[in-house]
Design the sequence.
């Protein structure tokens, strides 16, 4: 049985990180300046702690100055806002990220409204979301950006392609749909209230699953030869699995991303790339 080409996010992310490290070193030799990234974590969610540690390691490895700010779970929205305000004013910090999710009593939207859009390396402030909606340039959310970058690096055509995005989250589904539209694809979003979503995904040239439901996408959801992107990270007894039933869908698809080693590493690579962009826009190239 034919099997799909693997779109290797881990390898691609490594290449992007090496490219960035070179640019940062050259810039540093000329200016003695380095991009500074601050990651704010509120509370002690175990997965978030790992992601924040990985972001710290990745940003340090490419030559950025990395700051981790860990606030206790009982912090109030105003206490988190004070931290964001301090980072907004700090000229050595070019990128700020609020690790999500935050504890329930904290209003992430209020915090994002106060984050300087020039330092919003997650692309989640209303200003950067509005720019995306209006088709203007700006910092884009890391996971959707990583998906588009991975498809580009594998020369997967987007223009005129029918794309179905499964999931409508602020972090992935909604911005990703707009980013595919920017690239002249024809886009549909399906979600938990869509009846018979598989009838719609089966029409697509590219299917992106971003719902957080282990093995939701089965071969009968996929047109033979489609490209399948799996954003899901679901922790099960047998380890981390995606939203796509990998083995059976790989037999139908022409290209597929693995979990782990697909979109996750691309998310971190795009955070570094956005920080580099924010740095250049502030200090010049
Ligand atoms: N402020 C943000 N919060 C969150 C984001 C985000 O983009 N911005 N995304 C996710 C978590 N996330 C980054 O923050 C993230 C998740 C997973 C990975 C990753 O590399 N995963 C590995 C496997 C992970 C494991 O072994 O635990 C993989 O897929 O290969 C990177 C980043 C929610 N919060």
Sequence:
């Amino acid at each position: 049985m034919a099997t799909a080409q693997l779109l290797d996010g881990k390898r691609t992310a490594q290449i992007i990180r090496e490219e960035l490290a070179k640019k940062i070193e050259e810039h540093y030799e000329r200016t003695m300046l380095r991009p500074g990234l601050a990651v704010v974590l509120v509370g002690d969610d175990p997965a978030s702690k790992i992601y924040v540690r990985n972001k710290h390691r990745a940003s340090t490895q490419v030559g950025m100055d990395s700051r981790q700010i860990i606030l206790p779970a009982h912090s109030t929205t105003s206490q988190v806002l004070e931290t964001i305000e301090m980072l907004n004013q700090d000229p050595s910090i070019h990128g700020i990220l609020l690790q999500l999710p935050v504890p329930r009593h904290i209003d992430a939207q209020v915090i994002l409204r106060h984050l300087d859009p020039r330092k919003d390396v997650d692309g989640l402030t209303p200003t950067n979301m509005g720019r995306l909606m209006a088709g203007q340039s700006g910092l884009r959310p890391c996971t959707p950006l990583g998906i588009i970058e991975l498809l580009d690096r594998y020369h997967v055509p987007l223009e005129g392609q029918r794309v179905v995005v499964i999931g409508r989250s602020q972090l992935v589904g909604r911005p990703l749909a707009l980013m595919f539209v920017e690239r002249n694809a024809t886009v549909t979003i399906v979600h938990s209230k869509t009846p018979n979503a598989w009838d719609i995904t089966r029409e697509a040239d590219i299917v992106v699953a971003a719902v957080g439901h282990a093995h939701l996408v089965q071969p009968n959801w996929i047109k033979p030869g489609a490209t399948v992107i799996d954003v899901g990270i679901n922790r099960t007894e047998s380890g981390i699995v995606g939203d796509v039933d990998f083995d059976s869908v790989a037999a139908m698809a022409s290209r597929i991303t693995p979990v782990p080693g697909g979109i996750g590493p691309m998310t971190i690579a795009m955070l570094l790339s956005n920080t580099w962009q924010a740095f250049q826009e502030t200090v010049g190239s």
Summary: The chain is about 40% helix and 15% strand.
